[in-house]
Design a protein that fits this description.
Layout (H helix, E strand, L loop, with lengths): L4 E4 L3 H12 L4 E5 L22 E4 L6 H11 L3 H8 L1 E2 L4 E4 L1 H13 L4 E5 L13 E3 L7 H11 L3 E8 L2 E3 L9 E2 L15 E6 L1 H13 L21 H6 L26 E7 L6 E4 L8 H8 L10 E3 L2 E8 L1 H4 L5 E2 L2 E6 L9 H19 L12 H10 L9 H4 L30 H21 L4 H6 L1
Parallel strand pairs: 1-2, 1-7, 2-6, 7-17
Antiparallel strand pairs: 3-5, 4-5, 8-15, 9-13, 9-14, 10-11, 11-12, 12-13, 16-17
């Protein structure tokens, strides 16, 4: 137990893995390259910096798979969920956080542990077995040198896609003679608020003019070697969605359902929503407005939105390349690289997409590594749980035996990143003579089963006191 586990990457997954290892009594060396080397998206050198949205998405553990994942991580003593809960900002039924407070809390709590050492350095290659057990959690912005080292070991199974960032606006530059606060259907959020979003309404003419401007706006050009890199379907740039059809946005991030313009007492044709981005409530981000528009075009086009005519931007949108593994081919059921089992991978680089999904894989990597060091084996969480379903998806355990990888992955020729969703869960049992559950009833049954099964699983994970007594 005197030899540490090395964790490469101080993002959400790496921080969570380090926390779980340290709680198990295992010494940890956490390697973070910032500020020695920064990335195209990071702004600070803080651990667990949120570079895209500040939202952990739905906190509804009764009918939403992401909310179920939140609940499971809380049961397992997740550092990431604990810090998120401590720095929550209003976001309706979602869990959104103050970025700076969240990152500072994660860093402070890790540095307070005597068996955690943080080293600020860039590791340019994957370590060999002599280095000791290692968790690679370098995320979607893995440095070029380390990325090339992974590619050399993983071959062409090392993949990538484009992800995008939404702009952030100063609240005091928003015109509240037009915009108003309301959550859809006045739904109460985890903090009890019912008006968490700023809404900017559009009528029919304004909406279609806006869509035309998005389509015609000047976009960032990709380099030659980037042109075949796909987008992640769950985080498409707003202008890419607009190009798919003039009504796409009105049925997507700009859908007006559940909202009533207080000036007209009618539902607008479309709406742009903004969500609080910091604890002070001085910054709001544009929900679903990831973009690759050039910065000047963003200012020009987004100021045509009613209520944002004088908008001042604290940050403009951008696009960056994400990196991930062909995990079903390369990783075993405990997130070890089959070709180099002293290496585990965690976070978005494994092919999960989203903050909490990344943290969940960090949590599992830490628990698996801690068990291995004790000479024990930790069974994975059941695939009926959100955490277990994600693990099964990326490691191939959910796939039909004997089918080709391409067919099993559900995509023509390539494995694609995945968010937590009930589609990853095994079917619910159906009693003889009964019809399968549908809609909301099916979601509730999946959620209830997941939470019960995860509670039973986490009860079997040795506590810190039990580990000390072994």
């Amino acid at each position: 137990m005197t030899k540490p586990v090395h964790v490469i990457g101080g993002g959400l997954a790496g921080s969570e893995a380090a926390w779980q290892l340290a709680r198990a009594g295992v010494p940890v060396v956490l390697h973070e390259m910032r500020p020695v080397r920064s990335t195209a998206a990071h702004k600070t050198d803080g651990l667990a910096e949120l570079v895209c949205s500040n939202s952990f998405r739905s906190d509804d553990a009764e009918t939403n798979a992401v909310g179920v994942l939140h609940a499971e991580l809380r049961m397992a003593g997740s550092l990431i969920l604990s810090a998120a809960d401590a720095h929550q900002v209003p976001a309706g039924s979602a869990l959104a956080v103050d970025r700076d407070g969240f990152s500072q809390t994660v860093q402070r709590r890790l540095l307070a542990l005597a068996n955690v050492t943080v080293v600020r350095e860039e590791l340019e290659r994957l370590p060999d077995a002599a280095f000791g057990p290692t968790i690679v959690a370098t995320g979607p912005l893995t440095s070029p040198a380390l990325s090339e080292s992974i590619r050399a070991l993983a071959g062409q199974s090392h993949l990538s896609f484009f992800d995008a960032i939404a702009p952030v606006i100063h609240r005091d530059s928003i015109d509240f003679d037009i915009a108003w606060f309301q959550s859809r259907w006045d739904k109460e959020g985890p903090g009890g608020e019912t008006a968490a979003y700023i809404n900017c309404p559009m009528d029919h003419e304004q909406y279609f003019a806006f869509v035309a401007a998005l389509v015609a706006g000047e976009k960032s050009e990709f380099k030659e070697w980037e042109k075949d890199t796909p987008y992640f379907e769950g985080c498409l740039p707003i202008e890419v969605m607009a190009e798919r059809g003039p009504r796409t946005l009105s049925f997507g991030p700009m859908k007006p359902v559940g909202l009533l313009d207080p000036r007209t007492r009618r539902r607008p044709y479309a709406v742009v929503q903004l969500r609080q981005d910091n604890a002070l409530g001085t910054l709001f981000n544009m929900v679903g407005f990831q973009t690759k528009l050039k910065h000047g075009e963003q200012v020009r086009i987004f100021r045509t939105i009613p209520g944002l005519q004088q908008a001042e931007f604290a940050r403009l949108g951008g696009i960056h390349r994400n990196t991930f593994l062909n995990a079903p081919k390369l990783l075993d059921g405990e997130l070890r690289l089959k070709a180099a089992p002293w290496l585990r991978f965690a976070g978005q680089i494994t092919g999960v997409e989203g903050y909490v999904e990344s943290a969940a894989m960090g949590l599992l990597a830490g628990l698996f590594a801690a068990a291995e060091i004790r000479g024990a084996t930790l069974a994975p969480p059941p695939p009926t749980t959100a955490t277990g379903a994600l693990l099964a998806h990326i490691t191939g355990g959910h796939l039909a035996e004997g089918a080709s990888f391409e067919r099993q992955a559900g995509h023509p020729g390539t494995f694609q990143p995945m968010n937590a969703n009930f589609g990853l869960f095994p079917p619910l049992p159906v009693a003889d003579g009964k019809r399968p559950l549908r809609g909301g009833d099916r979601k509730k049954a999946n959620a209830a089963r997941a939470l019960a099964d995860f509670r039973a699983w986490v009860a079997g994970v040795p506590t810190a006191d039990q580990r000390a007594a072994e």
